[in-house]
Amino acid sequence: MKSLKIIIPGLLVAATGVGAGDLASSAFAGSILGTSVLWAVIFGAFFKYFITEGMARYQLATGNTFLEGASLHFGKAVQIVFLIYLLTWTLVVGAAMMSATGIAAHALLPVFRSAETGKIVFGILHSIAGYLIVRRGGFALFEKIMASLIVLMFASTIYNAVLSGPEIAGILKGMLVPVIPQKIDTAGINQGSVWTLAIIGGVGGTLTILSYGYWIREEGRDNTSFIRITRFDLLTGYFMTALFSICMIIIASGMKIPESGSATLLVRLAGELTRVSGPAGSMLFLIGAWAAVFSSLLGVWQSVPYIFADFYNLFLKKGRISGGKLTGSLPYRYYLLFIAFIPIAGLFFKFILIQKVYAVFGSLIVAFFGIGVLLLTGSVKYISQDSRSSYFSSALMIIAVVFYFYIGVPEFIASLGNIFR
Predict the structure, then answer these.
(1) Domain boundaries in the chain?
(2) Each residue of 115-160: pLDDT tens digit?
(3) Coil, helix or strand at residue 304
(4) Which of 16, 83, 156, 305 has a Cα-to-Cα distance from 207 of 20 to 30 A?
(5) Dihedral of CA 325/329/335/341: which sign?
(6) In 342-390, where does DSSP find H-type helix?
(7) If residue 392 lies in a helix (H) or strand (E), which one and from where to where?
(8) Domain 2-351 listed as CATH 1.20.210.10
(9) How many Å apart are CA 104 and CA 275, to the nearest integer?
């Protein structure tokens, strides 16, 4: 039980980061590219591990979260850009998560004649449930519910991946040989690079990696003596994250899934899995998919208000408020209301432009987090000598950031061209 307690924050990172985006991008990538891009899952998880570990190590060494450190050392411009991103992320991702949980719930319990009605009703009900769990249940109840959802989501994906009869040689090659497949569509776009980028950037979440620092505060980790435990915790979390995405790619490889939305995705995958693993396997997949998207929604509802409350106190120079005091603060409670109810409007309307702007901006945000970690943990100007990053880890971070920009910037430019054409 004590060992489980140690890895809980890492498992929360896995459950929150693995949501509708990972499920969809992994499934579509598996359908289009097969297992040749499994290396991208490992690379993405590896990169996110080093970023999150650097953020946590900075926090344990200085007492400041990554957001507090960036605000302290890099000024108001960073704060303003981050606030714009945070609000956009909240609106778009909040609506997407409600939609995904509504779709998953309707696939499990198709009690409404229209799938659109089921998506809206179930989406709203899940958002309200998430709000009540976070607002009334406290961190202890949140942990217990997330643990149950984690068991469901991982058990279902591993079970179906094994029953799909994967080719071991192809899986090993996909993990060990990094290639970006050439899959040119009718518009002349290389879908191989698009989906490879989506996997690398999406695995393990984007903004939610900031949440880890607040969760380890809840666990009482507040000095450098916890660095070793934190590294083990994060390794476990990102291993589970990579395992989920790998299983989803394996399940979807060989299937023909049109890129027509998450509702069609779940139904088609469940239908295909009925042939492979029978009705029980298909139902287990739908339960696991629901657990994946609801755990992600619940993790975001609990953690993103932390980020806003921290930002609010920093921006107004009110100082740091940590632990239970932060969750009880008015900024936390108001932002929880905001994220749980305002994005409901997105269930009725399609904010196409906002979604595209978020996609092109969000595709590179993790790389900027990597740069921030390099600056804050690579110099004794910001961190103590015994806690600063080693030359080896800094070199790995630089390679990852350069690679990410190398494949990400062309897609960023192309997306902007499509938006403002």
Answers:
(1) 2-351
(2) 788 889 999 999 999 999 999 888 888 888 998 898 888 888 888 8
(3) helix
(4) 156
(5) positive
(6) 352-377
(7) helix 391-419
(8) no
(9) 20
